[in-house]
Amino acid sequence: MNILTPSEINDIKICGRKLSEALDAVIKSIKAGASTLDLDNIAFSELEKRGCKPAFKDYYVEGIGQYPSTLCVSVNDEIVHGIPNKDRILKNGDVVSLDIGAEYHHIFTDMAYTVVVGPISKDKKRLLEGTKKSLERGIEQAYFGHHIGDIGAAVEKEAEKYDLGIIRDYVGHGIGEQPHLPPQIPNYGIAGTGVQIVEGMALAIEPMLTLGSEKTVVASDGWTVKTADGSLAAHFEHTVVIENGKPIIVTK
Hints:
alpha+beta, Creatine Amidinohydrolase, single chain, four-stranded antiparallel sheet, five-stranded antiparallel sheet, 4 helices, globular
C-alpha cells in the first residue's frame, strides 16, 4: 500500500532524511576524475551506516533481470537507470543525474538530483533549473482532494516555460511498503483527472526533462534509458507524504 499509517509516516520521514543525507554525501564527492562506480560505493556505505538498505540493488524487473547497483548514475544524454561503472570517468561539463532509493523498517523512499561537473553553461543551467522548478510545481499540487492529473499538469506547464522536452515513457509512482506502487504519476496531464489524492498517501514525484525530444531509447545493457536525439537530460525527484492534507517532502 502507499496509504500509510501514522507509524509508517514516522518511518518514511526517518527513511527520507537518511536517504537525503546519503545522497548529499554522494553529491559532495562528484568531481572530474571520479568514476560512477566510486559514487555508487559511497552511496552504499552512506546508507549502510545509517541503518538503511538500498532499494534498487538487486531490484528485479521481468525481462531484464536484477539491477546491480545502489545508485543510478545517468550522464549527459542518459535519462535514468544508468549503471555505475569503474570505467565511466566524469569530466568537466558532464550532466550527472543521481537516482537513489532506501528501505527503513520495511518502508521505502526514493529521490533524484542532477548536477553539472565544473562550470555550467546557459543551456545546462536552464535544463537543471527548469526540471527542479517543475518538481516544485508538481509537489505544490499534491494536496488532499486534488488529483494526480493536477501534478502532471503543473509539471508540464512549468517545463514548457523553460522550453524543455518532457519524457513520457517513464513516470513517477506511489511508494511505501514497496519501492514502486500505484498510481503512476506522469509528468504531463490534465488538471482534475486521475486518482484522487488522499490523507496518508505517499508519492514519488520525478520530472525527467530534456533539452530536445521526448523520445527515448534503451541501451544495450537493458537498463540505461537515453534520449533518442542525444540531447542532455535532467532528473529531480522527491518522496512526499500527505499529512494534514498537505504534501510533506520527506527526502530533504
